[in-house]
Recover the amino acids of this structure.
């Protein structure tokens, strides 16, 4: 199979890569670009562990072909903190112990970031619906929801 | 395998028609990539239609709405005009998958994936939506219910692509609605579903009606007899009971792990009543 040459923007940087036509964005991020923050849980769009933001839309990177990102903007977990300064969501996930094994956490953080960007003051129900595409098998979700609520308060004040 | 991103329908159709082997059309990919991953399909050619001019737009025309084949369902939910005119279609489209899937999945893909349990299809069938099909022989417009012919099968010929879904301009006093039964609150596949679309006269009497049921046959059912029950009524209790009976009788469901035949029949009736009531209220009926 001939490779596809792709030029895209990831976390603000122009990135060029070659990938196979059937290669997912998730595989490109992890295996070609060394961006291993997005995780493969199911590989079928059910668990949300591979969530990234593609042109301002939350998507599962396992359901996007690498070739499709030509000329587009991708935001991954690696672009969330500013240097050593954590994003308020990351800080609140730590403070609320909203993670155990951590596999789902990058996906939750990206999904929560997208949620708060579109709805800065969500109700608990809106948070639970908004994060329904992300599965966590450790925490039971309560701590995650509380961390997002707390981060929303901090971000509104910022 | 080849991946191409044509800029025109003519090019896309030409590439598809001229390809040998298996080809697949890619819009949101939320079905296609899962099927590729599962090894159910290994396309030799993937035609990404998202760069084709106009396919990612919802256009409001004098005749109604034209929803491009590559418009993600999330965008449908953000269109105030579409939501106002066709709330049932939008609520059905918004039930497909998670936030992540909503950012990718399309109603055209939902239609062409041809699942009997597809959420947006009963709502589209009830709405009388039409599909604009472009192929080597030109353009044709067909009712959406003639696209799926059975689970995973469509009536589209080689080289044909659905370009857009058309919804009519609304007559005054019209309303539509969609509901599905799932054993959880969201993120599941319909066990039974129903879509109803009504137009009332100035006295609140149903003038025209369309009733569609999902997940109770090999394809979504348009139940003409159920529409006849509603026409001429103001949705009194006796009418709703007859509607439920007709809908239950129209079902040809299978027994599977998600529901038995008996359960699906009963729930089809219950959902039809609830959906008709919502559509009636949305049309301004009291």
């Amino acid at each position: 199979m001939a490779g596809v040459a792709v030029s895209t923007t990831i976390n603000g940087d122009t990135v060029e890569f070659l990938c196979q036509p059937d290669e997912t964005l998730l595989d490109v991020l992890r295996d070609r670009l060394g961006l291993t923050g997005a995780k493969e849980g199911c590989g079928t769009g059910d668990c949300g562990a591979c969530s990234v933001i593609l042109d301002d839309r939350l998507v599962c990177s396992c359901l996007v072909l690498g070739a499709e990102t030509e000329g587009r903007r991708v935001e991954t977990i690696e672009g969330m903190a500013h240097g050593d300064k954590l994003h308020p969501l990351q800080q609140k996930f730590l403070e609320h112990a909203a993670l155990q094994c951590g596999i789902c956490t990058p996906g939750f953080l990206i999904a929560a970031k997208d949620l708060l960007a579109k709805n800065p003051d969500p109700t608990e129900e809106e948070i639970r619906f908004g994060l329904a595409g992300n599965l966590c098998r450790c925490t039971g979700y309560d701590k995650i929801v509380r961390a997002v609520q707390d981060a929303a308060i901090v971000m509104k004040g910022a | 395998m080849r991946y191409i991103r044509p800029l025109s329908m003519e090019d896309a159709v030409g590439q598809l028609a001229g390809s040998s082997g298996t080809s697949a059309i890619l819009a949101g990919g939320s079905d296609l990539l899962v099927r590729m991953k599962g090894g159910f399909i290994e396309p030799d050619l993937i035609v990404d239609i998202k760069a084709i001019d106009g396919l990612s737009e919802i256009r409001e025309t004098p005749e109604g709405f034209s929803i491009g084949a590559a418009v993600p369902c999330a965008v449908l939910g953000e269109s105030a005009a579409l939501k106002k005119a066709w709330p049932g279609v939008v609520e059905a489209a918004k039930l497909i998958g998670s936030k992540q899937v909503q950012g990718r999945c399309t109603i055209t893909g939902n239609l062409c994936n041809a699942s009997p349990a597809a959420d947006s299809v009963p709502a589209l069938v009830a709405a009388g939506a039409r599909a604009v099909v472009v192929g080597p022989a030109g353009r044709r417009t067909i009712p959406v219910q003639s696209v799926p012919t059975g689970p995973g099968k469509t009536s589209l010929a080689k080289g044909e692509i659905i370009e857009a879904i058309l919804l009519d301009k609304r007559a005054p006093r019209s309303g539509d609605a969609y509901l599905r039964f799932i054993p959880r609150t969201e993120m599941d596949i319909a066990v039974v579903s129903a879509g109803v679309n009504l137009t009332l006269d100035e006295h609140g009497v149903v003038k025209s009606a369309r009733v569609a049921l999902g997940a109770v046959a090999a394809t979504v059912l348009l139940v003409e007899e159920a529409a006849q029950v509603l026409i001429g009524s103001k949705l009194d209790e006796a009418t709703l009971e007859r509607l439920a009976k007709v809908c239950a009788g129209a079902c040809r469901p299978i027994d599977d792990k998600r529901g038995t035949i008996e359960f699906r029949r009963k729930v089809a009736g219950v959902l039809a009543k609830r959906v008709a009531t919502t559509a009636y209220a949305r049309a301004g009926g009291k």
About this structure: The first helix of chain A runs from residue 25 to 32. Chain A has two domains: 4-79, 88-157. Chain A touches chain B at residues 1-2, 4, 20-22, 24, 43-45, 48, 51, 54, 57-60, 62-65, 67-68, 70, 111, 114-115, 129-134 (CB under 8 Å). The first strand of chain A starts at residue 4 and ends at 10.
